[in-house]
Every structure is written in C-alpha cells, then in structure tokens.
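Hi F.,

I've been meaning to write this up properly since the lab meeting, where we talked about keeping a consistent format for the predictions we share between groups. The idea is simple: the sequence comes first, exactly as it goes in, then the structure tokens exactly as they come out, then a line or two of notes. No screenshots and no reformatting. I'm using this chain as the first example so we have something concrete to point to.
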Amino acid sequence: MSNWWDLAYSNDFIPWHSDTPTKELVDLVESGRIKPCKVIDIGCGLATNSIYLAKKGFIVTGIDISAVAISRAKQRAKMEGVSISFYNIDFTKTETVSKIGKFDLAIDIGCYHSLASKNERERYFESLNKILNNGGKYLLWAFSSKDAWKGGPPGIDENEIEIMYDKKFSIIERKLIDTSFRMTYFYYLQKL
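Output, unedited:
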C-alpha cells in the first residue's frame, strides 16, 4: 500500500492536503485545553499540523507510510524553521512504532479511516495504546463510512470508536462535522 501513497504524494494535487492546520486542533491549542507536550502526528502527510504544533512549542514527531510524504514534510519543516522528527513508518507495525518513544498527545487526521480491515484497525489500536502515555490525549478525525459511496477511504462506522476504545479511553468530546466532501467524526479522547 505504501507505493500507492508514494504515488499520491508525488503529485502537486493532493486532494486531502491543506496548508491550514485543522480547526479543532487550533481551537484546542489556542484555548489552552491542550498545552505543549510531546506529540505524534500519525499519517502526517506534508506536515501542516506538525509544523503548526512545533511553532506552538510542542515536541513533534511526524510519521507516515509514504517515504515521499516524509521527504516533502522534512523540506517544508526546514523552510518553516522548525525542528520535527520524521519517520517513514506504517503505524500498524506495533513493534517498529514502539521504538520511537512515548507521547502525551497523538493526532490522526486521515490514517485510521484509511485502514480497510478490522485486523489493521486492531493493530493500529495496539500501536496507539503502546506509545501513548496514561492520561495522554488522542485526537481523531475520520470520515463516516455512510458516505463511502462518495469515494475516498472506507471511513468508520458510527459507534466504532466507542466500541473499540471503550476499556482504554474516555471520550472528552465527539462531534460530527459536515465537510465539503464527506461527513467526518471528530473525537477528543483521553487514555485511562
């Protein structure tokens, strides 16, 4: 699958990319609800959110399955004058992921909802549980599977996160966002 992502990031037109950090993330940081800490950006792509967080004093690690995305993200971080650790890693490979350390905050804007199988999603959860400190925060944006006919990744079912994360995380905030492309779930969770 990484070859597909490398091909996608080799183009200048990347439909899911934005040069603006995600609104919910900005709101949480600017309001002080989330303070600078050690953060991992899962599926960081071209690092827009990673760069924003680094500029706000966070210690940032960005990971992506695409080597091309990581190469371009490094260039963008350098141009913006911020220090970010980048790794070309598949987040479903728990043993590899666990070697990069522990984090107080994890953000995912588009990785989890791209995983097609239950097995991949369980391995993702294993990796998240392994690298996130107890009390750590987790922000997830994921397309609704109800809109999968519009194209793009498979998305998530309505209560999937509540069921899978039930014993290990508490939900601080959950909302459904009407984006121009597909309905998107936003979750703000805390590891128990």
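Notes:
The chain has a mean pLDDT of 89.
The chain is about 30% helix and 30% strand.

If this format works for you, I'll send the rest the same way.

G.
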